[in-house]
Specification:
Blueprint (H helix, E strand, L loop, with lengths): L1 H20 L4 E10 L3 H9 L9 H5 L4 E5 L8 E5 L6 E10 L3 E10 L3 E12 L2 E11 L2 H9 L2 H26 L3
Antiparallel strand pairs: 1-7, 2-3, 3-4, 4-5, 5-6, 6-7
């Protein structure tokens, strides 16, 4: 009887491993929101990394997160490293491309809880008196990443954080405009 249980367990594990191995390695998570401000105003809040704590959903998850900035204040070469609690982990991001009022692209490196390297883009599209902000992250999962994504819906999980971040970004932009008397 025990032998049959062990054989069934081994077959299940092999079947799961085969299933995971056949899953696509590449992923893309994207969310978008219209923000009632010009592309230039919104762009500044993404391109200047010291403005991120005001709207980043992960800064809200760990107010004690240790953040280090390096490089220029904004644009290509500006970088942000963090060490936080279990919810935010540890990693860094560096702006690799910055086109005023169009695009900010980052190289995103996660060290904990799981190592990963991804590309994150913010695009800004004028839409009348609003700006359509699109936040995307692309990357490649190894076997463990694919196994984790079988169990957890990463698009839903990370996408929810992107949605919170975009809502926070809109609130910060509105508050900045109000403070400036606009």
């Amino acid at each position: 009887m025990i032998k049959k249980i062990l054989i069934a367990l081994a077959a299940t594990l092999v079947g799961f491993a085969v299933f995971v191995a056949t899953r696509p390695a590449n992923f893309r998570i994207t969310r978008a929101a219209k923000i009632s401000a010009s592309a230039g105003v919104v762009f500044t809040h993404v391109n200047e990394l010291k403005k991120w704590p005001a709207w980043s959903p992960w800064a809200k998850m760990d107010p004690q997160m240790k953040v280090t900035y390096a490089g220029p204040e904004a644009g290509v070469g500006a970088s942000y490293s963090w060490v936080g609690n279990k919810d935010v982990g540890e990693g860094s991001m560096t702006i690799t491309e910055s086109k005023p009022v169009e695009l900010v692209r980052f190289n995103l490196q996660f060290l904990k809880p799981m190592e990963a390297s991804n590309v994150t883009d913010f695009t800004f599209t004028p839409a009348g008196d609003q700006t359509l902000v699109t936040w995307s992250m692309t990357g490649t999962n190894g076997f463990m990443g694919k196994a984790f994504s079988v169990i957890m819906n990463m698009d839903k999980l990370v996408g929810a954080d992107f949605e919170k971040g975009l809502a926070n970004l809109e609130a910060v932009v509105k508050a900045s405009a109000t403070a400036a008397g606009q």
